[in-house]
Amino acid sequence: MSKTVDARGLACPQPVILARKALLEEDEIVVIVDNDTSRHNVTRMAERSGCTVTSETRADGTYLHIRKSAPAAQAPQPQVDEPTQGPLVVAISQDRMGSGDPELGAVLIRSFLHTLNEIHPLPKIMIFFNTGVRLVVEGSPVLEDLQTLQRQGVQMLACGTCLGYFGLKEKLAVGEVSNMYTIAETLLGAGKVVTL
Amino acid sequence: MKTTATIFLFPSVSHVLRAESLLKAKGVRCKLIPVPRSVSSDCGVCLRVARKDAGMAAAALREGGLPVLGIHEI
Predict the structure, then answer these.
(1) What is the rounded distance in angstroms from the CA atom of residue A131 to the CA atom of residue A178?
(2) Is the pLDDT confidence value at B40 over 80?
(3) Under a CB-based contact definition with an 8 Å cutoff, are residues A49 and A185 in contact?
């Protein structure tokens, strides 16, 4: 019988922590969540750890059936063994480019994100945190460029803590809400990180 | 290659920002982009408007007294 983790009513990143712990002990677990963010984050953690996830919606919550897919599958560990093989990650830490003049910085970030669509290689993942999350919400001047990048396969992660801090969680317009586990794993598992 | 857009060059970033506000107020869709390499190697920004709106944009900028350094089709 598989272990069940009841993560209903728990705030991010608690569901991910509990699920990860359970996966260290069991090959097959069920995680019950009650919101989309938890469902996404637990699913992503499990899939990145080489597990298969099936989701079942019931009246009292979403049941995530998580199973390690191969006998050789190890307990979830960040993949940091060969960082140079990892993806190109662009980390956007503010809604401006550079720390000098704010008005100029706002122009430069628009110019930079437009240019990303025209050059190669494209980043594999873009992470937005601190005031950087203002770029991925409704009303952002760079939404069109980010949406184009996303259509080209660039994955966008927005720091959920930051969106919450600025009261922007409901206004996310591109990418997905993420947590510090995924952000830290993505940064440490990257082949190259470009930070703005 | 058929051109689809027209870019307007200005003397400074401040002019670009003023021109952008002006065009937006006049209902002309425009986008602030880096000056394309084919036009200049300067590290500058410019405004891009749809080819069909170029006449309207030029008129609005003239009316608003904004100096335009160059107009290029891209």
Answers:
(1) 15
(2) no
(3) no
**Contact A155/A53 with Cβ under 8 angstroms?**
no
| A17 three-class SS | helix
- 3-class secondary-structure state, position A49: coil
Q: What is the structure's pLDDT at A104?
A: 93
| Closest B-chain CA to A105 | B13
B16 touches chain A (CB under 8 A): yes
User: Do B32 and A115 make contact, defined as CB atoms within 8 angstroms?
Assistant: no
> For A71-86, what is each residue's pLDDT tens digit?
554 555 554 555 468 9
ipTM of the complex: 0.72
Position with higher pLDDT, B64 vs B34: B64
Query: How far, in Å, CA of B27 to CA of A133, rounded?
Result: 28
Give the residue from A97, A114, A140, A144 with the most B CB atoms within 10 Å of its CB, the best one to mutate.
Answer: A114
* B33 has a chain A CB within 8 A of its CB: yes
The shortest C-alpha distance from A48 to chain B (Å) reads 36
Whole-prediction pTM? 0.66
Contact A159, A127 (CB under 8 A): yes
Low-confidence spans in chain A with pLDDT less than 70 = 1, 70-84
Cα-Cα-Cα-Cα dihedral sign, residues A94, A194, A40, A82: negative
